[in-house]
Amino acid sequence: MKQEGRSVRLVDVARAAGVSPSTASKALNDAGSLRPATRERVRAAAERLGFVSDAGARALSMRRTFIVGLLSTDDVGRFSMPVMLGAENALTVGEISTLVATARHDSVREQHHLRTLVARRVDGIIVTGKTTDARAPIHVPVPVVYALAPSTDPDDISVVPDDAAGVRMVVDHLRALGHRRVAHIGGRPDQNSSRVRLAALQEALAAAGMELVGEPLFGEWSEPWGRQAAGLLLRDRQPPPFTALVCASDQLARAAVDRLRESGLRVPHDVAVTGYDNWEVMWAASRPPLTTVDMELERLGQRAAERLLGEIQPETGADTGPRGTEYVAPRLVARGSTIADD
Hints:
Elements: H1 10-17, H2 21-28, H3 36-49, H4 55-62, E1 67-72, H5 80-93, E2 97-102, H6 107-119, E3 124-128, E4 144-147, E5 157-161, H7 163-176, E6 181-185, H8 192-208, E7 211-212, H9 223-234, E8 244-247, H10 250-262, E9 272-274, H11 280-283, E10 292-294, H12 297-312, E11 324-328, E12 331-333
Parallel strand pairs: 1-2, 1-3, 3-4, 4-5, 5-11, 6-7, 6-8, 8-9
Antiparallel strand pairs: 10-12
Helix pairs in contact: 1-2, 1-3, 2-3, 5-12, 7-8, 9-10
C-alpha cells in the first residue's frame, strides 16, 4: 500500500524487499547479476508500495540529471577503488547514477574527461587519487568534492583519512602490550603519508614516554625496501635494540616480518610488527598475519558523496559540514604480528 504523507523512495522498496538500496536499484532497472527471485521480490515490493521512478521527469522539474562524475587520477586503483565503491553505494541510495573516468596522472586526459562530464551535465564531481598528496583544484561550473587526495585550496571540500589518528592507535596498542622501544620503516619521504605518519609516531611516542630507536628509514613502498630496511635496523645485533617495529605500509611490514624471521627472531615474541592500510593481499600473506590500520576508504568515499549531495541540494538538509578538510577516523585491526596466539 502506498505510504501516506510522502512519496515512496527507493530505500522504502529495498527495506520492504529485504535487500540493499543498490540491489533494489539494479532489480528495478534490469541491471547487474541478480537472481530472478530477488529481482521479482523487489519488483513486487515496488508495486505493493506504489513506487514510481521517473528519473527523466524528475530531472526536468528539478533541473538536475541525477548523474555524478567520479574522476580518479589513479592508474592502479588500490586506494581509489574502495573510495569510488563507497561513493557509488551512497549515491545509489539517492537514485543517482555515476560516470567513472580515469585520468592516469595525465593532465590532458583529465581535462578531456572534465569537458565530457560537464557536457553530460553532471550534477557534481568527486575527484580522488592514488595518495593523500594534495592536488591542484579543478575549475568546473558544478560542485566538486575531493576524496583521499585533498585540494590545495583550503576553501574546497576535501575528505581524507586521519593518518595521525591511525598512528596514535598503533602506539597506544604497543604501549598496552608493554613495548617501550620502537623502530620505524617508512616509504617515500617526499609523500604526505610518510611525513604525517612519522610526525604522528614521534609525537605519540614522546607523549607515551616511549623511545624511537635510531633514525627513521625511508625508501620505496615496496617489499624489497622493507626487507632491506629491516636488515639495516638489525645489523646482526642480537637481541635487537627495539621490541616493536612500526611500518608505514603493509608491504613494508610483510617484508620486514620475513627478514626478522630469517634472522632467527620470533614475531611477535621477540619483535612486534605493525603495518598500515589493511591490504588483505599483504596482511593475510604475512606469517603471522599483520596488525595494521584500516583507513576505512569505503566509508571515506561514502562521506565524500554525502558532502557532494549536500552541495548539490543544500535545501534538503543534508549534512554539509564546514568547508575545508574533513578527516575520516581509521580503525586498528589487531592480529598475530603483535599478539601471540600462545
